[in-house]
Design brief:
With 471 residues, the chain is mainly alpha-helical. The chain has 22 helices and two strands.
């Protein structure tokens, strides 16, 4: 009887999926909007802090995105696309080296495929957005993204108030996301978009200026329980100043920067007073990483044994220590040094647990994108992975060249992604799939007047000509 019940639910789920898929084929707009919306539903957050949800629900966003990506690919099968040549070369070389690494290490295929989910998310979002046949302009894409960020920022303010009133953990301040690392990453991207629109005098949302949105995202990052937020904001402003020129940058943002410096110095003095009075330990200071180099060394690498060595309090490797630990695993063998320990070897998922994760259980060697790529793909694979990011940085479609505003956003965003690589493994998340698609979107263009079945039309024409000759 129990087997019949499972069979019934399995057949019902299959029928629902088929019906859902067929309904999407003629509704290209939903192919993009459904995965876009579900990206910002914090299912894991609800599961962690409020009530336990069925495990399958945690996989729902990924499954729906993958389904919409497959349907979109079917919709686009008669509309071939082309991408930047350098992006294609860098990506295929990265995959080629990954295949060599698998053959050398004999990795589990399921783990290896699962480790590439970051690119799967990107391509799924890409075909879903292109299924709208370019009706989704880049400006509309940016505005839709900022609207999601705006809602996330307002929710974060409410979460901060709730945490303050109830003395709950500050980790709960994550807006529409399940973790503070995703929250920080996305809100920094939103900040990059808003300051670019602000600088160019363009509007993103009705009745709210781009300048006010920029300040909102600065505050949203400041109220989160993430010490690195201020550091990343400073880097973003530095990258922005490099591209627009220091004189233009200071003329435009000077008063805002002075205000920010005044607030930061005031908070730093206040924290020093608290530390001096013994009411706050130095390692708890939010600004210690800006003023104390030893703090940075201990925080990233665990050079001080009083800080649990290279491990954090939770027992996982520190961010910097994960990189050096992975490098140590590679340095023992020249093949491993060049090609890594194989895709998926650091995976700790139940779908496909990696070989290294079984040996070093709980270490989280792949806690950052850089430590994961270096350990799994080796030096060569890591170089070509970074090459993929740089290809997007330099790419600019001849058919649809970016204007100065869009070009500024893309270049600053890619530089931000590069400095985020050693911080968290954000590349494997759905939100990175969306953000990366946002940057890659204008460089993927349709080959107009040509389809995958063009050769069939040519054959018909040739056959018609032959018939005329025979007659």
């Amino acid at each position: 009887m129990e087997k019949l019940i499972y069979l019934f639910w399995g057949i019902s789920a299959l029928i629902i999926v088929i019906a859902f898929t067929l309904s999407l084929i003629k509704r290209e707009k939903l192919l993009f909007l459904i995965p876009f919306v579900i990206t910002f539903i914090p299912i894991e957050y609800i599961d962690r802090y409020f009530f336990k949800l069925p495990t399958i629900l945690n996989w729902l966003p990924q499954l729906i995105l993958l389904l919409c990506g497959i349907v979109s690919a079917i919709v686009l099968i008669k509309r071939p696309m082309k991408s930047s040549i350098w992006f294609s070369i860098a990506y295929f070389l990265f995959i080629f080296l990954a295949i060599i690494s698998i053959s050398i290490n004999g990795n589990n295929i399921v783990s290896a495929i699962y480790s590439q989910r970051g690119f799967i998310f990107i391509f799924s979002f890409l075909v879903a957005s292109k299924a709208m046949y370019d009706r989704l302009s880049l400006d509309k894409f940016y505005k839709l993204t900022i609207k999601a960020g705006f809602i996330s920022a307002l929710l974060a303010v409410f979460q901060r108030m709730l945490v303050t009133l109830t003395s709950s953990t500050g980790d709960m301040v994550t807006g529409l996301f399940s973790s503070d690392s995703q929250y920080l990453y996305f809100h920094c991207i939103c900040f990059i978009i808003t300051i670019a629109y602000w600088y160019n005098g363009q509007q993103l949302m009705r009745k709210i200026s781009a300048s006010n949105l920029s300040i909102l995202f600065i505050l949203s990052i400041g109220i989160a329980n993430n010490k690195a937020g201020i550091g990343f904001l400073i880097l973003i402003l530095l990258f922005f100043a490099i591209y627009v020129g220091y004189r233009n940058f200071w003329k435009f943002f000077g008063r805002l920067i002075i205000l920010g410096i005044f607030i930061s110095v005031s908070l730093l003095i206040f924290e020093k007073i608290l530390i001096g009075s013994g009411r706050l330990k130095n390692e708890e200071s939010s600004f210690a990483y800006l003023s104390d180099p030893e703090y940075v060394s201990d925080y990233m690498f665990g050079s001080d044994d009083n800080w649990h060595g290279q491990f954090s309090k939770s027992g996982t490797l520190r961010r910097g220590a994960a990189i050096t630990f992975g490098y140590t695993l590679l340095s023992k063998d020249p093949y491993h040094f060049l090609f890594g320990r194989g895709p998926g070897s650091t995976s700790e998922s139940s779908i496909g647990e990696g070989d290294l994760s079984k040996v070093y259980e709980g270490y989280k060697i792949g806690r950052s994108t850089l430590s994961e790529k270096l350990t799994e793909h080796g030096l060569l694979g890591t170089i070509f992975f970074i090459g993929v990011l740089l290809a997007v940085y330099f790419a600019n479609s001849k058919e649809h060249p970016l204007n100065a505003n869009h070009l500024l956003i893309k270049k600053v965003a890619i530089l931000f992604m590069l400095v985020y690589l050693p911080y968290e493994n954000i590349f494997l998340t759905i939100i990175n799939g969306l953000v990366f698609t946002l940057l890659l979107y204008p460089n993927i263009t349709f080959i107009e007047g040509e389809t995958l079945f063009s050769y069939l039309d040519d054959e018909k024409i040739n056959q018609a000509d032959l018939n005329k000759i025979n007659i």
